[in-house]
# Entry
Amino acid sequence: MTYEYGCENEACCHTWEAEQKITEAALTECPKCHKQTAKRLISGGTGFSLRGEGWFKTGGY
Ligand SMILES: [Zn+2]
# Structure
């Protein structure tokens, strides 16, 4: 299971993916700024639709 994470530290704004089991607790520490600002993003449909929209715009010119 691949989870997407984002850092809530505005000075960092790092996003990354972490391979975790569904039973594992969500990460809390950002690997970049090492603050407790990591937040698990909702993965799946939302990310794909955003990505699809990007492709559509790119291909539409
Ligand atoms: Zn960070």
